[in-house]
Amino acid sequence: MDKKKEYSNGEVTIVWKSNLCIHSTNCISGLPNVFDMNKRPWINADGATTDEMINQVNKCPSGALSFYLNNNKQKGEQEMSDVKIDLMENGPILVNGKIELKNSKGEVIPTETTVALCRCGSSKNKPFCDGSHATIDFKG
Ligand code: SF4
Ligand code: FES
């Protein structure tokens, strides 16, 4: 089931969308005191400073993690005019920037500033990657 959860230290709120997570574990290895899959809740917003958490959230390759500052409720998204596209080794296509994504019927699919698009064909959440490339040992 798709989940959207929020975790706050009173200053910043981290937002996690389960359907966009590609299980790269960047967050867990980058800030283990905040992100720990063995704990509940798995995100501890008191485990690091606000700046450290914002910095780590911005490194999430799929857009599953985002944040907003509680003061002004501004979304913590990068202002980008250019779109950057990277192919992750043996994984998804990472698109970073403001884009309009449409399905085959021409309907707009809401996206984050960063999205990971499946290129292995096995995702159960197409067009987004759901980490299944690792399960099928996709190479490419
Ligand atoms: S995709 Fe983002 S939220 Fe999911 S494990 Fe990787 S860094 Fe963490
Ligand atoms: S590329 Fe990740 S599920 Fe297909």
Write up what this structure looks like.
This protein is an alpha+beta fold and 140 residues long. The protein has 2 domains: 4-69, Alpha-Beta Plaits (2-Layer Sandwich); 84-135, Ribosomal Protein L9, domain 1 (3-Layer(aba) Sandwich), CATH 3.40.5. It contains 3 helices and 8 strands. The chain has helices spanning 26-30, 50-57, 132-135, and strands at residues 4-8, 12-17, 65-69, 84-87, 93-96, 101-102, 108-109, 114-117. The strands form 3 sheets. The chain has a 3-stranded antiparallel sheet with strand order 1-2-3, with helices on one face. Strands 4-5-8 form a 3-stranded antiparallel sheet, with no helix packed on it. It has a two-stranded antiparallel sheet with strand order 6-7. A hairpin with a 3-residue loop joins strand 1 and strand 2 (12-17). The longest helix has 8 residues, at 50-57. The chain is globular and about 40 Å long. The model is unreliable at 74-80 (pLDDT under 50). It binds iron/sulfur cluster (SF4) and FE2/S2 (inorganic) cluster (FES). FE2/S2 (inorganic) cluster binds next to helix 3.
Present as ligands are: iron/sulfur cluster, FE2/S2 (inorganic) cluster
Distance N terminus to C terminus? 29 Å
The coarse silhouette is globular
Largest sheet: 3 strands, antiparallel
Low-confidence spans: 74-80
Instruction: Could you tell me the CATH topology label of the largest domain.
Output: Alpha-Beta Plaits
Give me the number of helical elements: 3
Average the pLDDT over all residues and give the rounded result.
89
Number of strands: 8
Helix content: 10-25%
Query: What is the CATH class name of the largest domain?
Result: Alpha Beta
